[in-house]
Specification:
Length: about 260
Amino acid sequence: MSWLAAAAELARAGTPFVLVTLARVRGHAPRRAGSKMVVTAREAHGSVGGGNLEATATARARELLASGARDPELLSLPLGPQGGAHGVQCCGGEVTLLLEPFALARPSVALFGAGHVGWALVQVLGTLPLNLHLIDSRASALARPLPSPLAATLTRHHAPVPESALAALPAGTHLLILTHDHAEDLAVLERALRGPFGMVGLIGSASKWAHFRRELARQGLSETDLARVVTPIGDPELGKSPPAIAIGVAAQLLSVLELPEGLF
């Protein structure tokens, strides 16, 4: 696999890697400046020259991954008979390598409801480096083909009791509640406000939220809990069509997301 294909695949999967670039060459070296390789904790793709040079670069890249380093660094290596920790490489030149860590931990966003708005959100949010979860009590609602290509990963959950799917979501997951049934919305919302989640967004009108507030307070949730709910979601000035709602919701979500920086 080429370094570019590997980097794209790793970025889509959210796997940390280091991009190693042969930034400068003085004298003789086994590769030209600009050669690249991608290093993960277990694999390497591409080449910056093989031998001691490449083994040293790989070892240093894995040290950066293990330490969680985020800043790039330069590594200069002589290619002389004195050798190094990984043997001798007698090209006679000197190279400078640029090592760039890409820590690509992706935020998670769960969409409760695979209706028209839910799928419109998949299309809009799918352009971002996210882990998306689409949850619905109706298996048929989840059966659509995926929009392609997606920068996000998408996991579909058929959950006859939708709030039960919350247990499988990572802490900090941002939740958007927009099922086809107000009773399901309320059940998911009540469970969500008792969990370690991020933004909790609820689709619907002011009267729907007023009813939900009373019921959630009756179930023992505090004003602090209720203040976590973002409702309505979307921007009414954009319109009421599913794509317009999805664009408005995505804009709200972007204000709280911490997206990974990287090539893709």
